[in-house]
Inverse folding.
């Protein structure tokens, strides 16, 4: 809106303008008012009826010259027809301001009426008048203009700006006066109407926004303030209302209490302050103020409006001080935009007050009238922007929080699974130990008894072998890790001893010091693979020599068992895992994530290569 205003001013100042001598400025007029002759019509021209007249200066502000008058007041001016009137350009009368309404007569003939001249009057206080003076009615010499003005007594008005009066007059070419009229109309009507419509729309939107988001109630109060301001300016749209002047003034003055409530609450809530006493007193004030206006009556409306205006202004000033102090305390150095806005509003209010007291309406006064709605529109747009930004940040925060919740949920589920697995492992380990203890205490004791008491050598031998297998199984169940060096010692003693008992020369090769530790499962499975390989050599190979080589290479534990026996017969059709327990050997190696390879041929002996990854062997869990 401000750029539009500046553009209109620039065009008015820079555009081509006729010479000043072509326009006649009139600042004095004859005034006739008072009683008419008994036989005269109430609307008769007092000048024609012979009423007494006097000379007054224009502008004539009734609030100072005749505060109790409601009119009609007749003004008469005379002028000579300028030479330019004979051309194509029409002559016109420009009235910058008249309040409340007027009629214009040229040489006794009515040429213009602003609307209703009887109650309810048409309100033209903010509408400049441009009256065309018909060439046919112009006299060659002196012409007489009579202006009939009606208004309202000052005591019945809520503001001096709506008091009756007439500005200075200008008579000149219509093309020249049209520019002045357009600028004045833009300042007093078009721009205020546009700002009022904008306030009504944005205020309604923000009221709904604040009502839906109760945590941002300051938006609702700002919306109410904007809508209330727009309603007060509705007289620019509705110049003739279907109600009496007294009712209209009463409503406009009573509206000030609601505007104060909205303004005070907006300033407090936007600063994060909520005072319960204020929340209770402001609505009570909105009911008390109309009551005092009714009790005072229409004749004292102006006085009561002045008293209430001072009280309400002090309340808004106090709320503004609290707002600025709170903002400065919460956000040091960030309160200056609101301070600048409030200071501008106060300055505009001061200019308007001085203009009303002096009865003059210079350009500065009209600009001051535009400042409050213009600042309200700007502040409203700023609040909408802040709300949108806060909403966007809230959405981002919500998305981030949801992501954090999902991550935390996944972490909790992971931990729960790990705890569940750990619980299962603990229960399984406890059960293994119980089974191992039962085997050792019950079955082990019985087998040992058989070994020492049996008279049969074969039964005693089988019992001893069963006892050794049971002890190996118990060792695997207990889950105790075994040092690789100790395991190599046990394997060497068992393998070499069994080969020697079978008459086979055994050769063992292994490193002296190995720091690695095997899990119980890896030790048990490897032990059984070596036992199975040794048993096959003893029972089926017919070998006289067997070598066992153990080493650690590339992170793997490797065992190579090689004999010089007959090899695996061809009847197995090349499928070496079909006999001699080799399928079980490969299965056990696979359980350790390793492999067991068998190489053999008739007459070339047999080679068994066992490879077990040490990292898997170290981490392998006990398993039966």
């Amino acid at each position: 809106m401000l750029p539009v205003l500046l553009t209109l001013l620039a065009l008015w100042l820079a555009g081509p303008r006729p010479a000043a001598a072509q326009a006649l400025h009139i600042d004095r007029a004859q005034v006739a008012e008072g009683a008419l002759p008994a036989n005269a019509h109430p609307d008769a021209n007092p000048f024609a009826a012979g009423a007494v007249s006097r000379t007054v200066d224009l502008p004539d502000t009734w609030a100072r010259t005749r505060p109790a008058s409601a009119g009609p007041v007749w003004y008469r001016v005379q002028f000579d027809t300028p030479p330019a009137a004979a051309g194509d350009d029409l002559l016109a009368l420009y009235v910058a301001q008249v309040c409340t309404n007027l009629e214009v007569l040229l040489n006794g003939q009515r040429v213009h009426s602003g609307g209703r001249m009887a109650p309810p009057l048409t309100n033209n206080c903010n509408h400049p008048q441009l009256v065309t003076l018909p060439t046919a009615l112009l006299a060659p010499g002196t012409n007489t203009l009579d202006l009939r003005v009606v208004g309202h007594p000052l005591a019945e008005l809520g503001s001096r700006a709506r008091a009756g009066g007439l500005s200075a007059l200008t008579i000149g070419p219509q093309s020249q006066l049209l520019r002045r009229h357009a600028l004045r109309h833009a300042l007093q009507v078009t721009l205020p109407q546009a700002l009022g419509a904008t306030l009504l729309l944005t205020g309604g939107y923000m009221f709904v926004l604040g009502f839906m988001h109760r945590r941002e109630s300051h938006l609702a109060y700002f919306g109410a303030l904007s809508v209330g301001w727009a309603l007060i300016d509705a007289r620019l749209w509705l110049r003739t209302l279907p109600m009496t002047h007294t009712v209209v003034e009463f409503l406009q003055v009573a509206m000030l209490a609601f505007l104060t409530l909205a303004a005070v609450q907006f300033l407090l809530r936007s600063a994060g302050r909520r005072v319960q006493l204020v929340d209770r007193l402001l609505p009570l004030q909105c009911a008390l103020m109309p009551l005092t206006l009714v009790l005072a009556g229409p004749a004292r409306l102006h006085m009561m409006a002045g008293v209430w205006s001072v009280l309400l202004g002090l309340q808004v000033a106090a709320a503004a001080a609290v707002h600025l102090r709170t903002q400065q305390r919460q956000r040091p150095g960030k309160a200056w935009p609101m301070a600048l806005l409030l200071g501008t509003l106060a300055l505009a209010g001061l200019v308007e007050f001085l203009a009303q007291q002096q009865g003059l309406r210079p350009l500065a006064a009209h600009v001051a009238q535009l400042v409050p709605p213009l600042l309200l529109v700007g502040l409203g747009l700023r609040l909408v922007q802040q709300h949108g930004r806060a909403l966007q940040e809230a959405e981002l925060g919500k998305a981030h929080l949801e992501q954090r919740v999902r991550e935390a949920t996944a972490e909790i589920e992971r931990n729960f699974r790990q705890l569940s697995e750990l619980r299962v492992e603990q229960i399984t380990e406890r059960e293994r130990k119980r089974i191992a203890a039962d085997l050792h205490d019950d079955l082990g004791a019985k087998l040992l008894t058989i070994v020492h008491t049996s008279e049969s050598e074969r039964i005693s031998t089988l019992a001893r072998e069963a006892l050794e297998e049971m002890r190996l199984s118990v060792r695997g169940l207990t889950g105790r890790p075994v040092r690789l060096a100790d395991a190599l010692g046990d394997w060497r003693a068992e393998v070499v001893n069994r080969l020697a008992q079978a008459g086979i020369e055994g050769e063992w090769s292994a490193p002296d010091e190995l720091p690695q530790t095997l899990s119980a499962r890896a030790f048990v499975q490897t032990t059984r693979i070596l036992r199975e390989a040794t048993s096959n050599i003893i029972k089926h190979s017919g070998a006289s020599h067997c070598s066992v080589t153990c080493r650690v290479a590339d992170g793997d534990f490797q065992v190579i068992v090689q004999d010089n026996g007959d090899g695996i017969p061809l009847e197995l059709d090349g499928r070496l895992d079909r006999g001699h327990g080799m399928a079980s050997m490969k299965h056990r190696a696979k359980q350790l994530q390793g492999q067991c390879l068998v190489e053999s041929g008739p007459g070339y002996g047999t080679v068994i290569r066992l490879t077990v990854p040490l990292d898997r062997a170290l981490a392998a869990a006990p398993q039966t």
